[in-house]
Design goal:
Helix content is about 35%, strand content about 15%. It has 15 helices and 18 strands.
Amino acid sequence: MTIHDSSETPPAGTPTTGAPRADILGDEEALRLRGDFPALHQSVNGHPLVYLDSGATSQKPSVVLDAERRYLETTNAAVHRGAHSLAAAATELYEDARVTVADFVGARDDEIVWTSNATEGLNLIAYAFSNASAGRGGEAAERFRLGAGDEIVITEAEHHSNLVPWQELAFRTGATLRFVPVDDEGVITAEAAAAVIGERTRLVAFTHVSNVTGAISPVADLVRMAHAVGALVVLDACQSAPHLPLDLDALDVDFAVFSGHKMLAPTGIGALYGRRELLNTMPPFLTGGSMITTVTMEKSEYLPAPQRFEAGTQRVSQVIALAEAVRYLRAVGMDGIAAHERSLGERLLAGLADIRGVRVLGPLDADRRTGLAAIDVEGVHAHDVGQYLDDRGIAARVGHHCAQPLHRRLGVTASTRASTYLYNTTADVDAFLEGVAGVRSFFGEA
């Protein structure tokens, strides 16, 4: 693969705005926004880059890159540790970012814990439950304790990051791990969940939006069932926070996680949301500096949340950049972004339906899913499909997308996924469709 950087000379018809627009998105506005993303102004293998892998990681606008660089150049210091002016300024930016991100997802600022990514957030919850089950946290942590006879419920649609930590928690505590099966379309249904969630359920963890099918889960139904039996709810919002308006308080979930790199921010930053009263009674996972009040040689006492879960030196520049990414998304408008991606998703589904030998995984109704599509091409392995597309400058995801059980349920080992975002256009979708249409004949399967 060869890549040519042409960031100083964006393609014709791709004006740079320097700032996002607040009106409803369409192709014209998406093209304007694309001008804000340096990585999109390049060619791959002699073709203009068509980036359709935002479901894995998004590109970053210049304002986000500049915000992180500006912090590192002018305000870099240890937060919550120094009395000097630079440390105070860094701490203020750090905590202001928490307020910004909390407001974006419908939370209070002391309900947002900084993590490296969503995977760390899910492991934090799992290990906190494990520590409580071992007796840490005292009587206040009773509701987090698990043992033989208790049940953890997940679904067959989960990313491995929302599966493996719960497998390990069940192993450590003796609890039973159960799962809600998906239907033939790969969709989580309330009916299936009702058959699994019961009086022994203590925790229910599920994805808001599948990273394979794009299907939107029945959150209200699952939360209602879980709370009816006294179970806590963990929501994987990695594929919803970047693409849909999100109000975690209104959804009534107890915990949620999302990753910055999927929503225009750098890698290495994510967030854990937890209801205030839960975070303040949950025993910590990572321990060390910055999360304590008093330390003796025999024992330690911990700060209230969120600091009690933020041990050690924090990823400050990434936090600053995430807040800038959130401001960018809000300026564009999450309703407009969601509508734009829904339109692109409809075009994807309609176009793929006309290509012989191509199966779309998930529901075929665009109103039930977000703007991504994972496909199985008859007779051609997903990696070969991805290479064929890459040769034409089209970046799509291939593999099992860290969701092997879901792929297995749908009867495939791997798929090729195109995922859209605010900077994609109908021309990007059409390029993907044209590429897919040529795959089978190229490999002699037509």
